[in-house]
Amino acid sequence: MEEKYRDVLKVPVAKRTREILRAFKLRASHRLGQNFLIDQSVVEDIVAAAEIEPGEKVLEIGPGIGSLTSGLLEAGAKVTAVELDKKLPAVLSETLRGYDDFTLVSGDILKVDLDEIMGNGSYKVVANLPYYITTPILLTLLERALPITKIVTMIQKEVAERIVAKPGGKDYGAVTLAFNYYTTAKIYREVAPSSFYPAPEVTSAVLVANVLDNPSVKVKDEKLLFKLIRGAFNQRRKTLLNALKGAGFPKDETTSALQRAEIDANRRGETLSLFEFARLADLL
Ligand code: SAM
């Protein structure tokens, strides 16, 4: 296996991915969202977007067989990667052989103690995310007050568009506002299905989110702000007042707070900016 494998490493990444899977008798798991990157130019773009300084700590989520990981390590990052698939450590110990600055943690990114595995100091997150849990992963990273400075992720284009959406459209929602609150985010580039093996059914995008030192708006009660946002979007076709009533906010109190915040109760949640939600939260 090892001799054969060494030859495999010499071939281009697209063919190499298929050959590695074959050599280790593996199949990409649909259940685990495994769409491996097979386009070196995309790996290079993700690494460039992450603006890695040599020696900098990076958390990678789902290293797969290590295609993006090796790009990060080549740029000088110290990578700690969390991978759920128990079959992949054996592959990674071959594909990343010779790199000292790589630590693999076996487990679920939603369950591991990130403070414990990342140690002291700030770090960046770089990942080609498993699409079946993109939003829970991103919200966990944002809401846990972790010392993350930048998040560079490959996600579905549709999700990326929701994150950078402006008020007023169907894409604008709770996830947009969470990113507006904690980060400044932009789409770095789109990525075609043919850049992955197996090819996903959707177009992807690389999202770059710079985490702010302090949230973009000041509120008295952060939990209430996000309860309000969730309430406004849970029934997004309803007017703000009715949606909030449905979410358990008392009608009279909400009507009065909307008046004092100078927000028309007949507007829909999707038309409110983060600043308006913050103003309303402080008056409730
Ligand atoms: N980084 C690799 C690449 O770019 O080729 C693989 C990316 S693939 C889209 C997603 C990876 O996340 C897979 O390796 C999958 O096994 C892993 N994964 C899925 N669910 C996970 C979870 N809950 N925690 C950690 N890793 C997970």
Tally of helical runs: 13
Q: At the fourth CATH level, what is the homologous superfamily of the largest domain?
A: Vaccinia Virus protein VP39
The 3D shape can be described as elongated
The CATH architecture of the largest domain would be 3-Layer(aba) Sandwich
- Give the proportion of residues in helices: 40-55%
Biggest sheet strand line-up = 4-3-2-5-6-9-7
Q: Give start-end ranges of low-pLDDT stretches.
A: none
Report on this structure.
Helix 7 packs parallel to helix 9 (174-182), helix 10 packs across helix 13 and helix 11 (240-246) runs antiparallel to helix 12 (251-260). The protein is an alpha/beta fold. It has 13 helices and nine strands. It has a seven-stranded mixed sheet with strand order 4-3-2-5-6-9-7, sandwiched between helices. Strands 1-8 form a two-stranded antiparallel sheet. The structure holds S-adenosylmethionine (SAM). S-adenosylmethionine (SAM) binds at residues 32-37, 61-64, 67-68, 82-85, 108-110, 128, 130, 133.
Question: Which features does this protein show?
Answer:
284 residues, Rossmann fold, Helicase, Ruva Protein, domain 3, 2 domains, 7-stranded mixed β-sheet, two-stranded antiparallel ribbon, 13 helices, binds S-adenosylmethionine
Concise overview:
The protein is an alpha/beta fold and 284 residues long. Helices cover 41% and strands 18% of the residues. It has 2 domains: 210 residues, Vaccinia Virus protein VP39 (Rossmann fold, 3-Layer(aba) Sandwich); 62 residues, Orthogonal Bundle (Helicase, Ruva Protein, domain 3), CATH 1.10.8.
